[in-house]
Specification:
- The protein is mainly alpha-helical.
- Helices cover 73% and strands 0% of the residues.
- The protein has one domain (3-329).
- It has 14 helices and no strands.
Length: 330
């Protein structure tokens, strides 16, 4: 197999696992509140995060260097988790993905005030086209807009905010801070809200929340390997393969077929997002915030593998440091 194919194929596998993760969320969402699902999935993710972060040997505290930015990123990640889980629960999977796929366009917009990014007319045009695609999916006036639609857009905005902040402070903050703060806040906040929504879970359903944690962790490891094997411009577009998994899972398990407007709107959003990726890969962006966002929702429900790997780079042998630096550049 050509080495150039390894990265994209690994990315397809990773995003297939992420789509399975979201399908399990939807399955559980028929019986339980997103608050309960988030709480138990984060609880099961903590041992995985601990195993990963135990290897960090730098002597430092958990105090953030940029407390304001870390707090805002944490709020954005927590909001993304709850709203994303809710959107997957109440919307057809393909429709939820179509709206969440607007996040690269929002990253482009937010990179202006947060990163000082200069966005030219080509990427502005892509953003406007993508927003038109969102309107095609929503069809305001033709169909009723629900809380699920608002939640999907909130997830896209929250992910965009968390991603751009990560680009701004990622070189200054310890990886353990970036990983643990959203997870800790999720456990505390969702734990406080849990009594108001709690429904007893049989062992099988509790096990499915552990599956969610395992899928998120495994997919994260695979996508980082994919970015190491191939250029980000080749790997990042594989993110959109989730719409195919959404169509398959929706048809097999949830009796969803999707309508014409959803597929047309999704196509417009995906095309505009791909254009932004290609522009960044071609040097139109100084910070490349979309390419470096890893393109997966930052939900605070599973450890962010990239942050942990960067945090350990200083302890790696010289040969491995070069590999970690390559990952950081991509």
């Amino acid at each position: 197999m050509s080495p150039r194919l390894i990265g994209p194929l690994l990315a397809l596998l990773s995003f297939g696992l992420y789509a399975t993760h979201d399908a399990v969320v939807k399955l559980l969402g028929g019986s339980y509140s997103p608050i309960q699902i988030v709480f138990f999935s984060v609880l099961f993710a903590f041992p995985l995060a601990t195993l990963l972060l135990m290897q960090e040997k730098s002597a430092a505290t958990l105090r953030p260097v940029n407390p304001g930015w870390v707090a805002l990123r944490t709020v954005a990640a927590v909001a993304t988790g709850v709203s994303g889980f809710y959107a997957f629960t109440v919307l057809p999977l393909a429709e939820a993905y179509a709206l969440i796929f607007a996040s690269p366009l929002l990253i482009t917009v937010l990179s202006i005030p947060i990163l000082g990014e200069s966005v030219g007319r080509h990427r502005w045009a892509a953003v406007l086209v993508g927003l038109f695609g969102v309107m095609v999916v929503l069809r305001p006036g033709a169909t009723a807009l629900t809380l699920g639609h608002a939640a999907a857009l909130m997830a896209a905005l929250g992910h965009a905010t968390a991603s751009v902040i990560s680009r701004k402070i990622g070189n200054q903050e310890r990886g353990v801070v970036m990983v643990l703060y959203p997870m800790m806040v999720n456990v505390v906040l969702m734990g406080c809200l849990l009594p108001s929504v709690y429904v007893p879970m049989p062992l099988v359903d509790l096990g499915l929340t552990a599956v969610i944690a395992g899928l998120g962790f495994t997919a994260g490891l695979i996508i980082i390997t994919a970015f190491r094997q191939s250029d980000a411009a080749v790997v990042a577009p594989m993110h959109y393969s989730q719409i195919l998994w959404a169509a398959l899972y929706g048809w097999l398990f949830f009796d969803e077929t999707g309508d014409t407007a959803t597929w047309i709107g999704a196509g417009i959003i995906i095309a505009s997002g791909l254009y932004v990726v290609l522009r960044e890969a071609g040097g139109a962006s100084e910070n490349s915030p979309v390419l470096k966002a890893r393109t997966r929702l930052e939900t605070g429900t599973s450890p962010r593998i990239a942050a942990a790997i960067r945090a350990r780079a200083a302890q790696m042998p010289p040969g491995y440091q070069a590999l970690a630096n390559r990952d950081k550049r991509q």
